[in-house]
Amino acid sequence: MVKFDGIEAEWVYSNLQGPVGPIEQRDLYVGAKVTVFGRHLTISSASYSAIQWIDKETIKLEKTLEEYRNKIMSMGVTPCIKRNAPQTIRNISRSSKTQGQRDLKLLRNEMARLGEQLANLGFAHLLVK
């Protein structure tokens, strides 16, 4: 269930457009920009359960990214993806703790790039979990 401009409805994902085409579940986070029926909207809030899921997935992905980076650095090689400073999303009033604001698709793309680098270094066996 997604709510846009006070209208609560079930939307088909293919009707919602993200920056690179139809969106997936991982594209929906607080601060994400989507296009609905030609209108550009920013998701400004989410349900508690959605925020919990996003934050839980973020923690898992960031832990895996850190493991990949550490293994690559232990080989004396610079990781192709460096740590990013947290991004601040403007015009969204939230508690002091940022919740549900991480782009899971971006994290998964970074994980894929680091995984490819690990595989090229001969550590493909570490990618299977």
Provide a descriptive summary of the structure in words:
The longest helix is centred in the middle third of the chain and has 27 residues, at 48-74. Helix 1 runs parallel beside helix 2 (104-120). Strand 5 (33-36) and strand 6 form a beta hairpin. The chain has 129 residues and is of the alpha+beta class. The chain contains two helices and six strands, in the order E-E-E-E-E-E-H-H. It is elongated. Strands 4-3-5-6 form a four-stranded antiparallel sheet, with no helix packed on it. A two-stranded antiparallel sheet has the order 1-2.
Per DSSP E runs of 2 or more residues, the count of β-strands stands at 6
- The share of residues in extended strands comes to 5-15%
SSE ordering: EEEEEEHH
The major beta sheet can be summarized as: 4 strands, antiparallel
Query: How many alpha or pi helices?
Result: 2
Provide the gyration radius in Å.
17 Å
In quaternary terms, these chains amount to single chain
Uncertain segments? none
- Proportion of residues in helical segments: 25-40%
Mean pLDDT over the residues: 77
The helix/strand class is alpha+beta
In whole angstroms, the N-to-C terminal distance is 32 Å
Topology:
Elements: E1 2-4, E2 7-9, E3 16-18, E4 21-22, E5 33-36, E6 39-42, H1 48-74, H2 104-120
Antiparallel strand pairs: 1-2, 3-4, 3-5, 5-6
Helix pairs in contact: 1-2
Give a nutshell description of this structure.
This protein has two helices and six strands. It has helices at residues 48-74, 104-120; strands at residues 2-4, 7-9, 16-18, 21-22, 33-36, 39-42. It is elongated, with a radius of gyration of 17 Å.
